[in-house]
Amino acid sequence: MEQFWLNLKYALLGLFQGLTEPIPVSSSGHLIIAQNLFGLHIEGLSFEVLVNFASLLAVLLIYREDIIRLGKNSWAYLIRREEAARSDFMFIVYLVLATIPAGVVGFLFNDMISETFKGMTTVGVTLLLTGVALWLIRNLRGRKSDAQLKAKDALLIGLAQAVALIPGISRSGATIVAALGLGLKQSTALRFSFLMYIPISIGGMILETKELVRDPELASRALPYTLAFIFSFVATYYALRWFMGIMERGNLKYFSWYCFAAGTLVLIFLT
């Protein structure tokens, strides 16, 4: 019976990760909240990297056509100098540029960030900050398309992603807020945000592979980890599909309200 409850808790952790990864409410913050509520203390980042990898696979599945198109057109521009393919090539260049800030910060300060900002007080405060940011851009309707992205836009969105390494700051929320604030269309902001997620997630997986393999609980918790992975993948897929529709209608204010409520409850009852 004890094993059953452990499996259920890990499955729910994967579900929370999957549901909150695509939407602007901070998946890392919700994992910390869920672990606190379930009485779990998971050492290191191997579990978080594992469920994030499941979310990555869901994102790759949803954006597979965009990824294939970007790859083909970039090749066409580089090899055959097809001018019509230049905007897709530059989109990839800007994705790489936007990945650099979070990559550098994560590589140099990941352990410090995870140790310093892991408390419930941090999560409560940063959820409130996420709510404020979402509220400020709730009515923005940008006009910049993929072809109108600039290096400055990419770097600023990348800096927002670096800030989101702090638990409770939503990665998708921070990058979408930055993108909309810079005048990008909602569709472009969403696409750029989640295509940015791909290299940063792969990088995190590579950096933490040794820790995952050496995790002393990996063998004994193979089934709970597997359940968390599956639930994270499925939940991310459907949550992202749902969020794409939300972005089209511009209803980000509801996520702002949620962050205000969640942050307040965390500060009152869990700190």
TrEMBL record:
What broad class describes the main subcellular location of this protein? membrane
Which keywords belong to this entry? Antibiotic resistance, Cell membrane, Cell shape, Cell wall biogenesis/degradation, Hydrolase, Membrane, Peptidoglycan synthesis, Transmembrane, Transmembrane helix
Molecular functions per Gene Ontology? undecaprenyl-diphosphatase activity
Membrane topology recorded in Swiss-Prot or TrEMBL: Multi-pass membrane protein
- Is Cell cycle among this UniProt entry's keywords? no
One GO biological process term: peptidoglycan biosynthetic process
Q: Name one Pfam family in it.
A: BacA
Q: Output the InterPro entries linked to this UniProt entry.
A: UppP (IPR003824)
Chain segments annotated as transmembrane: 45-63, 89-110, 116-137, 189-207, 222-240, 252-270
Specify whether Cell membrane is a keyword of the entry: yes
Localization recorded for this chain is: Cell membrane
Q: What reaction is this protein's catalytic activity? A: di-trans,octa-cis-undecaprenyl diphosphate + H2O = di-trans,octa-cis-undecaprenyl phosphate + phosphate + H(+)
Q: Name one GO cellular component term.
A: plasma membrane
Q: What is its EC number?
A: 3.6.1.27
Q: Which family does it belong to?
A: Belongs to the UppP family.
Task: State what this protein does.
Answer: Catalyzes the dephosphorylation of undecaprenyl diphosphate (UPP). Confers resistance to bacitracin.
HAMAP family (alphabetical): Undec_diphosphatase
Q: What else is known?
A: Bacitracin is thought to be involved in the inhibition of peptidoglycan synthesis by sequestering undecaprenyl diphosphate, thereby reducing the pool of lipid carrier available.
Official protein name in the record = Undecaprenyl-diphosphatase
Which gene is the coding source of this polypeptide chain?
uppP
